[in-house]
From TrEMBL:
Lineage, broadest ranks: Eukaryota, Viridiplantae, Streptophyta, Embryophyta, Tracheophyta
A GO CC term attached to the entry: actin cytoskeleton
PROSITE patterns named among the record's database cross-references: ADF_H (PS51263)
Keywords: Actin-binding
Domain ADF-H: 7-139
Family matches, as PANTHER family: COFILIN-RELATED
Gene Ontology terms describing biological process: actin filament depolymerization
GO MF annotation list: actin binding
SUPFAM superfamilies reported for this sequence: Actin depolymerizing proteins
Protein's name in the database: Actin-depolymerizing factor
Database matches in Pfam families: Cofilin_ADF (PF00241)
Domain of life: Eukaryota
Purpose: Actin-depolymerizing protein. Severs actin filaments (F-actin) and binds to actin monomers.
Length: 139
């Protein structure tokens, strides 16, 4: 079942929750964590559809790596309601080097499992993924 350079597998729930977010919009965001003991990527937290971007950023640990999906709703300059699905690789400078290496080597194969990602973002501190950055990348 291992499918990445790091030997980490992707738990089926990861894909299932992503499909729910994409098709049914039952979640605003999903935070994924690598469980080193089980050698797989698992769902750590789901955000309700009414969750704010602040709720999302608050759910990311300050000193540990995570993958996250965020469903960003916005209105274009032409006043059209749109949505973009962001994949965020959260790798804070303060996280363990081993953790950064495992997340980096697992990222591409994990992303391939989630069909429908529209924008990818790599962030090492909160300013690299603040709302202005998200807005700028969404258009």
């Amino acid at each position: 079942m291992a499918n990445s350079a790091s030997g980490m597998a992707v738990n089926d729930e990861c894909k299932l929750k992503f499909m729910e977010l994409k098709a049914k919009r039952t979640h605003r965001f999903i935070v994924y964590k690598i469980d080193e003991k089980a050698k797989q990527v698992i769902v750590e937290k789901l955000g309700e559809p009414v969750s704010s971007y602040e709720d999302f950023t608050a759910s990311l640990p300050a000193d540990e790596c995570r993958y996250a999906i965020y469903d960003f709703d916005f209105v274009t300059a032409e006043n059209v309601q749109k949505s973009r699905i962001f994949f965020i690789a959260w790798s804070p400078d303060t996280s363990r080097i081993r953790s950064k290496m495992i997340y980096a080597s697992t990222k591409e194969s994990f992303k391939r499992e989630l069909d429908g990602i529209q924008v990818e973002l790599q962030a090492t501190d909160p300013t690299e993924m603040d709302l202005d950055v998200i807005r700028g990348r969404a258009n």
